[in-house]
């Protein structure tokens, strides 16, 4: 039997306390927490937020602007609300960077969970695919 915690398990008290200490609303699941924590602690090469304090300020600002707000995904016309913010895992970020074409902009590392009006997940989205609908 393994003591390993699943990325899909609820966020534990230690992770919740870490984010609360930074004034950040934690993602509800361990995997989302660990990815966001890695982004805050280490950042990603070539992306905004030169140090931890800048990255914390970015997340706090985005949470204030977007969490709980009604948004629309123009491509699908789906409407929902931003539930939480997370980041790409280090592994997914490495994959995204490795397939980048020369001259292409660095891919966005932050992901926004959108929940539909029916309470069902519309998935994790990058910021450029939704707009405020209020």
Structure in words:
The chain has 134 residues and is of the alpha+beta class. It has one domain. 35% of the residues lie in helices and 21% in strands. It contains 4 helices and 5 strands; from the N terminus they run αααββαβββ. A 5-stranded antiparallel sheet has the order 4-3-2-1-5. A hairpin with a 4-residue loop joins strand 3 (110-116) and strand 4. The protein is globular, with a radius of gyration of 15 Å. The model has no long low-confidence stretch (mean pLDDT 85).
How is this fold's topology laid out?
Blueprint: H1 13-22, H2 30-42, H3 52-66, E1 70-73, E2 78-87, H4 90-98, E3 110-116, E4 121-125, E5 131-132
Antiparallel strand pairs: 1-2, 1-5, 2-3, 3-4
Helix pairs in contact: 2-3
- What is the string of helix and strand elements? HHHEEHEEE
**Largest beta sheet: what is the strand line-up?**
4-3-2-1-5
First CA to last CA: what distance?
Answer: 49 Å
The number of distinct helices, counting runs of at least 4 residues, comes to: 4
Got a strand count?
5
Which structural category do the helix and sheet elements fall into?
A: alpha+beta
Largest sheet: number of strands, sense, barrel closure: 5 strands, antiparallel
How big a fraction of the residues is strand? 15-25%
Subunit arrangement of the protein: single chain
Shape: globular
Residue windows where pLDDT falls under 50 for at least 5 positions = none
**Percent range for helical residues?**
25-40%
Mean pLDDT: 85
- Please state the CA-atom Rg, rounded to the nearest Å: 15 Å
Question: What's the domain count?
Answer: 1
């Amino acid at each position: 039997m393994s003591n390993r915690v699943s990325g899909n398990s609820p966020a534990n008290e230690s992770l919740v306390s870490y984010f609360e200490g930074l004034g950040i609303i934690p993602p509800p699941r361990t995997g989302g927490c660990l990815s966001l924590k890695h982004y805050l602690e280490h950042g990603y090469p070539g992306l905004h937020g030169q140090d931890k304090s800048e990255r914390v300020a970015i997340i706090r600002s985005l949470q204030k602007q977007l969490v709980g707000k009604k948004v629309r995904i123009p491509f699908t016309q789906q409407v929902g609300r931003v539930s939480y913010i997370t980041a790409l895992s280090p592994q997914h970020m490495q994959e995204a960077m490795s397939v980048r074409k020369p001259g292409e902009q660095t891919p966005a590392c932050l992901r926004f969970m959108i929940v539909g009006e029916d309470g069902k997940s519309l998935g994790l989205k990058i910021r450029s695919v939704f707009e405020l609908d209020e």
